[in-house]
Amino acid sequence: MRRAAVVMLGAALLSCSNQSASTSSPPPSAAPAQAADLRVRLDLLLGEHVMIVAKESAAAVSHSDEYAAYTSLLATNSGDLSSLIASAFGNTAALQFTLAWNAQNGYLVDYAIGVVTHDDDKAKAAMFALTNSFAPRFAGILNTMSRLPLDQAGMLIRQQTEYDKTFIDDFFAGNYTSYYTDLHRAYAQTSRLGDALSTEIALRFPDKFPGDPFSHAVDLRVSLNNLLQEHSYLLTMATDATIAGRGVEAGAATAALHSNMDGLTTVFAAVRVGATSTGFSDLWTARTSAFLGYAKGDLATRVALTDTFASRFASFAHVEQALITAQIGAELQVIDDQRLKSSKTVANDDRAAATAMREVADSVQG
């Protein structure tokens, strides 16, 4: 039924109507948050890198015009990582970091091209360079900068390379269920490096990054940020497959969204003490269904999302409605780009939608 997504959304919203908004006052003296901010930002950027690699590689396999835009987005992500590293270690160290990181990006792009064009020599050369050139070089840079143990750094980087390779291979083979499972594994792996590196930075520069980056509250904040960013990118993968008529892939992406929601439900219940897990999951499922309905051409879901959902979720999560509305608008813009085949703008808009999730995550109140 054409308006099924709207009906589903309305039912879920009504089930959550007993969740009233409350105004909570900030603590009299908030603890320093610089170390926590560093951990959140580093984890998000490293996780985003995996999602961009996934989208760039998928575009290469599909011979999509979006390939160039997502490849360019790798440079944007690299620039933001460089700025974050410079804030801790200075410009010279950041330059070394960036040169190695950009080399990694080049090898990953070459690997995807080699796989897509059946150029085994190119693919093998790229993977050899990632494993035997980039990994030890980058581990050494991290060790010198942050004192992260060389063995630990090398292990984390080699695992990340292996996991990235696996999901690229999955997509090329059309194994979409495995693809989304392995993509999640690669995405989660980035937090291991981000957490280890942010710990060393906070210990080495307590004046620059005061506070406890691993308190329970910060753990929840990090988890919520990572899961919401993952949701945003998974959603636009699902809508892209839906619009293009790639039904099997769309089904696998939708299943991945459900798995992501399970994680969100658990974390959200811990952050929002007193909120029912059923209330959140019903509301979030309806939200996802409405976006997928919009991708299928049901334009009525736009109003249901920007007006009704935004209001109800703001009340449910104790978040400013303007933040919810802005994120929904950014997500809808990506879907519009996909429908109109706006290949030059879709990648930046995709990132804007994911970035808007950070403000939502950091605004959720208990």
Task: Describe this entry's structure for a reader.
By secondary structure, the protein is mainly α. It folds into two domains: 183 residues, no CATH class; 152 residues, no CATH class. 81% of the residues lie in helices and 0% in strands. It is globular. The N terminus is likely disordered.
Write out key terms for the chains shown.
366 residues; 2 domains; 0% strand; mainly alpha
Tally of contiguous helical segments: 13
How is the biggest beta sheet arranged? Answer: none
The poorly predicted ranges are 1-28
Shape: globular
Number of strands: 0
Number of domains: 2
- The end-to-end distance, rounded to whole angstroms, is 37 Å
Taken as a percent bin, the fraction of beta residues is under 5%
The average pLDDT is: 91
The arrangement of helices and strands along the chain is HHHHHHHHHHHHH
**Roughly what percent helix?**
over 70%
Q: Name the structural class.
A: mainly alpha
Q: Please compute the radius of gyration using only Cα atoms.
A: 21 Å
Topology:
Blueprint: H1 4-15, H2 34-61, H3 67-89, H4 91-116, H5 120-146, H6 150-173, H7 176-204, H8 216-244, H9 247-271, H10 277-295, H11 300-317, H12 321-340, H13 346-363
Helix pairs in contact: 1-10, 1-11, 2-3, 2-4, 2-6, 2-7, 2-8, 3-4, 4-5, 4-6, 5-6, 6-7, 7-9, 8-9, 8-10, 8-12, 8-13, 9-10, 10-11, 11-12, 12-13
